[in-house]
Each structure stands twice: as C-alpha cells, then as structure tokens.
Amino acid sequence: MGATTEASVPQKLTSKGQATRARILEHAAELIYTHGVHATNNEQLRHAAGISGSQLNHYFPTKESLVLAVIEWQAERVLAFHRSERFTHFDSLGSLREWADHYIAYERSYQAGCSLGSLAAEIIKTDLDVHTELANVFQQWRDILRDGLERMQRVGHISAEADPTRLAHLLLSAFQGGMLLAQVARDITPLKDALQATIDHIQTFVISPAPTAGSPPPAK
Asked: What is the DSSP letter of 155?
C-alpha cells in the first residue's frame, strides 16, 4: 500500500524501534475501535502500549500522524490477506465462495465485525484530514476483487456483459453491510445471505462451456 507522508515508517528505525512502533499501532487501533478517536487519549495509549510520553511523541508527534499510521497498519493487514494465494487472486467463482465461506465460518465475524470497516466508521466521524487515505484503502480492496473478475472475463469464464467494477463494489458493499448487520444481530446469517446472494448474482454471468462432440443434449 502506498505510504502517506506522515504515516510512513521512519527510514532509520532499529528493529527494536520498529517493534515499538508496531506495538503502539496495534494498541491504538484497538483503543480507537473500542472508544472512538476523540475518546482515545495519550495516557490510555501509553498505558496500553507500555511506553513513555516521549516515545509516543517520537513516533507520532500529532494525533493525525497516529491515525494515518493506524489506517495504514490496519489496511495492510487486510489487503495482504486478500492478496495472498489463499483465494487464488479471486479469478474463479470457487475462490469467491471460499472467501465468503472463510468469513461465514469465522466465529468472531459477527462479534468483532470488519476490523477495517469498524475503524473507518470511527475515524470518518472526526474532522481529521484522513478521508483521502480511507477512500484509497477501500479502493485498493475493491480493485483486488475487480482485477479477479476482469481475469475471469478475459479467459471467458464470465460474459462480456458483466461489469467487473460494479460487481466488485457489490461484493465489498455486501461484505461491509452484512458484517454490520451480523454484528448488530449477533448472528452470522445477514453476512451469509448478503455474500451468497451477491455471488449467486455473479454466477448469472458465468459462461457454460460448449458441449463436446457426443455429449448428451442438455436436460429440459
């Protein structure tokens, strides 16, 4: 993910410094998720991360620099997971269903919700100048899904009538909305229904392979 000016990891951090910075970000993300941006203060963060005020100021001199870094840190975890080989780059209907099944089967999905979505919901309420960074993160996530759908289209698995960008938006919206409803209901069913219905819609664009010589006619 492209780094922002303030959120970038300092170039000359030692391994110990990198570990300290990562620990601060992990606790900051948890505090922001739990209490919100405005209710998260330096004292809470110093206590949670076990650091001094001078350490916190060294790595993050302003609240905006901290929030930007938290966005980048959390986003990198989510995007790296989606870019892994686990879902074979989302270039098949099976990989999309496997992705959906992963979250449907994950017992904390309806308890914790989407870590990145929940973080964004808290941060977007503030007057911090981080909206561009948040939009960029979700665009990258959408692009991972869109690129897979475009590959499916190029090799003839889905028809030319499909709009990969719109379908990727639909997948991401179903995921975020389903996660929120599942979290409210404390039941995974809304997420399951939203994702399965969306993938069923994508399946309507799947091109059936041409019958081979000698194949029986399709059942009527």
From this structure: T
